[in-house]
Amino acid sequence: MNALGKFSHTQRILIEEELTSAIRELNAPETLKESMLYSINAGGKRIRPLLLLAVMETFGGETEKGLKTAAALEMIHTYSLIHDDLPSMDDDDLRRGLPTNHKVYGEAVAILAGDALLTKSFELVADSSIDPQSKVSIISMLSSASGAEGMVGGQIADIEGENKPLSLEELESVHRRKTGRLLEFAATAGGLLSGLGQNELNQLRQFAEHIGLAFQIRDDILDVEGKVEEIGKPVGSDEGRQKSTYPAILGMDQAKEKLAYHLAEARGLLYDLHEEPVLLLELSDLIGSRKN
């Protein structure tokens, strides 16, 4: 098992425990909690919270102090997937090989489960043991990354980009917000909680920007070349919605070259920051070769 495998095995258990206990302890209707847990426990590699904790491990932070922030980040990611799958948005029947939340619990409960995950995420950060100044910074950063200027704004741009051709620059702008901003939050929040300075935080943000674009390019490639059992959703769904993608704009060969470019740039930034950033290098490789 490589360094990331050992690290992620331990941290994933802690992340899962944090997520599950936070939801189970809610004084809320059981149907709502079941719906929240259904999507939280539906699988996935937990790349965003692992990135946050891997940054802390790499730069000497106390990873246990980042657990609630990591869990909050995963809650926001999960809420966005529940809402993305709704008939009014992507209208997907499968997520990670399982029926989507609204297919099991109905649209109303799915919407409310997403709302509950979003709001609970900020409560988790507020209740964490980090110092008050860092707590305020983390909440501000997370709000910006997930809101109108970040993920939600990227989702709107993605919807508006359907059924019309986008330039490469326009496509990258969509994904820097929709996918990249939460990854940037993960990296910079991990750095902030490890006591890094502004220059180092800026480099971590650039690193995460590159892996965010690599993540999306790989996703576009899998939508063409993957298999349902590997990616957990129908193949060709982007083409069916007439979405602009990296293979559609660049061709498959150049899309793969672009993927390699962003991964190489990410690695270069890591070596500028740390002599042996083993965990983060392996996490970058995981994103570049991921199946789901």
In short:
The chain has helices spanning 3-24, 30-40, 47-58, 67-84, 101-105, 107-126, 132-146, 151-160, 168-193, 198-225, 228-231, 237-240, 246-250, 252-273, 278-289, and strands at residues 94-95, 98-99. It is mainly alpha-helical.
Protein model, in words:
The structure is a single chain. The chain is mainly alpha-helical and 292 residues long. It has a single domain (3-285), classed as Farnesyl Diphosphate Synthase (Orthogonal Bundle), CATH 1.10.600. The chain has 15 helices and 2 strands. It has helices at 3-24, 30-40, 47-58, 67-84, 101-105, 107-126, 132-146, 151-160, 168-193, 198-225, 228-231, 237-240, 246-250, 252-273, 278-289, and strands at 94-95, 98-99. The chain has a two-stranded antiparallel ribbon with strand order 1-2. The longest helix has 28 residues, at 198-225. The protein is globular. The two termini are 20 Å apart. The model has no long low-confidence stretch (mean pLDDT 92).
Question: What is the secondary structure topology, with strand pairs?
Answer:
Layout: H1 3-24, H2 30-40, H3 47-58, H4 67-84, E1 94-95, E2 98-99, H5 101-105, H6 107-126, H7 132-146, H8 151-160, H9 168-193, H10 198-225, H11 228-231, H12 237-240, H13 246-250, H14 252-273, H15 278-289
Antiparallel strand pairs: 1-2
